[in-house]
Amino acid sequence: MNRRFFLALLTRLIGLGTAVAAAIPGLRLLLDPLRQKGSAAKRYRVAPLEAIPPGTPVRFAVRGQRIDAWKVFPEQILGYVWVFRAAESGNGGEPHLRVFSATCPHLGCTVDYRTDKSSFLCPCHGGAFTNTGDRIPDETLGYKNPAPRGLDPLPYELVRDETGKVWLEVEFQRFELNTPERKPIA
Ligand code: FES
After folding, report:
1. pLDDT reported for residue 34
2. What is the phi-psi region of residue 56: left when phi exceeds 0, alpha when psi lies from -120 to 50, beta otherwise?
3. What is the band of 93 on the pLDDT scale with cuts at 50, 70, 90?
4. Does the structure show a pLDDT above 60 at 184?
5. CA 35 → CA 28, 68, 83, 139, 183, distances in Å?
6. If 0-12 CB within 10 Å is exposed, 13-18 middle and 19+ buried, where does residue 13 land?
7. In angstroms, what is the span from residue 141 Cα to ligand 1's centroid?
8. DSSP 50
């Protein structure tokens, strides 16, 4: 290998290396939506506490940014949650809430609340749940409950904003459907 050939080869290799290094950030940006796909738990501000009366569950939409491949959709409905606020004891403690995903763990329809029966019912195939989110047993229901597990509980936090207003923030998460175990979708 003569000296001229070696220098030409070296110059080409350096040029190639520089081009690859420059392309990496662009490639990362391009592939980012693929890496973000899935729905690991994220926290969303759902409703002011004053919109949740004690005693009867209330349904709220969870709104936030949705990323579909390379497109970003701001303020989309990502799902729904049911929020139950226990009657307060009046001792000035923090309100006690239960928050469930409104997605039926059978095949994913949105469950309704039946005030007259104080329980949740799925309109699609009759999945039924107590007002604490437990699956109602077949014997109690009188038919086979298609739901393989209870409603999926979601962690929450009550957060006070700069004006003093208290907000419910929920860690929204999707779970695999039609499995007895609760498996978060990563
Ligand atoms: S989707 Fe709810 S019972 Fe089937």
Report:
1. 42
2. beta
3. confident
4. yes
5. 9, 11, 31, 45, 20
6. exposed
7. 15
8. G
Length of the chain: 186
- Provide the token pair at 138: 């077949």
Amino acid at site 159: V
DSSP 42-65: EEEEEEEGGGS-TTS-EEEEEEEE
- Vertex 115, ends 109 and 116: CA angle to 5°? 120
Residue 149's nearest CA partner among 105, 112, 83 is 105
Q: Is 121 in the pocket of ligand 1 (CB under 6 A)?
A: no
Ligand 1 pocket member 102 (CB < 6 A): no
Q: Which two tokens stand for residue 127?
A: 């999945």
State if residue 105 touches ligand 1 by the CB under 6 angstroms criterion: no
In the chain, the amino acid numbered 104 is C
Give phi and psi for 68, each to the nearest 5.
Answer: -120, 105
SS3 43: strand
The best mutation among 106, 112, 179 to test binding of ligand 1, ranked by most ligand atoms within 8 Å of the C-beta, falls on 106
CA distance linking residue 102 with residue 116, whole number of Å: 19
Task: Tell whether ligand 1 has an atom less than 6 A from the beta carbon of residue 83.
Answer: no
In degrees and rounded to multiples of 5, residue 3 shows phi and psi of -65, -40
